[in-house]
Each structure stands twice: as C-alpha cells, then as structure tokens.
Amino acid sequence: MKTRLIALDLDNTLLNPQKEISLRNELILKKVHRYGIKVVLATGRPIKGILPFINQLNLLYKDDYSINFNGALVTNNVSGKALFSQSIDKMDILPIYNLAKQYHFPLDIVSLQQAYSIVELGKSSYEDYIGSLMSFTNLNFTNLPEQNYYKFVCQDVPDKLDNIVSLLETYDNLTVVRSRRDLLEFLPRGTNKRKGLEKLLNHYGFKWSEMIAFGDEENDEGMLQSAGIGVAMQNAVPRIKEIANDTTASNANDGVALFLENYFSNNL
Known about the structure:
Elements: E1 5-8, H1 10-14, H2 23-34, E2 38-41, H3 51-56, E3 65-68, E4 73-76, E5 82-85, H4 90-103, E6 108-110, E7 114-118, H5 126-130, E8 135-139, E9 151-155, H6 158-167, E10 174-180, E11 183-188, H7 193-204, E12 211-215, H8 221-226, E13 229-233, H9 238-243, E14 246-248, H10 255-263
Parallel strand pairs: 1-2, 1-12, 7-8, 12-13, 13-14
Antiparallel strand pairs: 3-4, 4-5, 6-7, 6-9, 9-11, 10-11
Helix pairs in contact: 2-10
C-alpha cells in the first residue's frame, strides 16, 4: 500500500533531547514532503508552539495541516483556520481545580493564543517547558476568563502524577492522558490524536492503511494502532512498543530518519 501521510509526535519522538529537529530528520522529512507525502505534526502543543518546526520542515503548502492539543484542534499551517475543533470551558475545569486545591497539585490552562497559571495552586515548570513560544499569565482561578480552552495540564514528578491519576477514576467528563511521564493533560471528552487524524484523513480522502505514525507515549496509542504502520521509538513506554508494528532507534539517535530512510530506500 502506498504511503500518503506520515504523522509524527514531537516530544521524545521527532524532537531530540535538546528539543530540536536534527538535520538528518529534517532532510528526510523535507524529501518525502516534496514527493507529495503529507507530513503532519501530531502534538499536544498549540499551533503557536510548533510554528518554528513547521517552518523548519517547510510544511507550508496550502493544504498542510497539524494536529494540535492532542487532537482537539486540526489547524491549517498556512491560514491558521481550523478543520476541526473541540473545546472546554471554565465550568469543565472547575471539578479538577477543586481536586487540585484539596490534593495540592498545579494546573496550567491553555487557550489558542494564551496560557494561564493558576497561582493559588503553586507554579509548575510548564511555562519553562513551553518557553517563549506562548504568553503566560499568572492569575487566580476566579479571574480565569470565560472563553474556549483546548486543554489544561498538570506538570509534576511522575510518582505524584501516578497518584493524581488514581484520584481521577470517577471523573469521566474529560479525557485524561499522559503526554510525558511528568505531564498529565486534561482534554475535551473523547479527544485524542486518532480522532484528529481521522478528520484529516477524511479531508484528504486517504485511508488509515496509507499512513505511517511515530510515537512514544500513551497519547500516541490510538494513532499508532490505527495507522497502516505504527512505529514506536526505542525510548517509548512499554505499552507503545507492545502495540506498534515496528520499533526504531530513540529520539536521541534520529529514530524517525533511520526508519524512513530504510523504508523509502527504493520508493523515492
């Protein structure tokens, strides 16, 4: 089956430990893109947070899209218009905010253009992780604007997140997923990368069997299971390696490029 789309998680998959796309990864992805294969960044980050990578890979054809907020938003890379959007509001966040007050864990809440740190819960390192690509405002939950949000997160040490996950078993109005061992994401109910990619595949008229997907964490599970070829990084969590069709080298060792160079050695 001909490959028509490559979907790539960013952190700990395409990005190396320095949070960069290596030259080797850049060159092979630009090459397949020039040959007409869609290259889609599928990430928990907002579109503002991935624009440098979109530009680096020249994913700027008029019908190039990205999967943002783990599938809550499918965005055209050029126009910024949404092909698909699913959001939450302040009232959806309130039950988890009350839980966070009780059990003392931080929350950062993300809209399309802005992130908010809820200061009475304590400041996490999420702003440092995102860096200067998105503006952060420190405020109390009472002052959080009434608007659409696409996710909110808790960044903390993995053991503490394990305990938080156990507290959430009775909360079913949101999708809760780990995008890194130290980052727990709260999303609109039913949101995942697979759902966002399904909208995009329908837009293109492509089949799941025509897609290769790369990932490392539990938020990548659906897209790897559905793809014609699901590839786990060597540094992936055990569950992702278990469900993937293949495993490549780690993100520190250009695993994406290594797989694609071999796969397309006689096809480009």
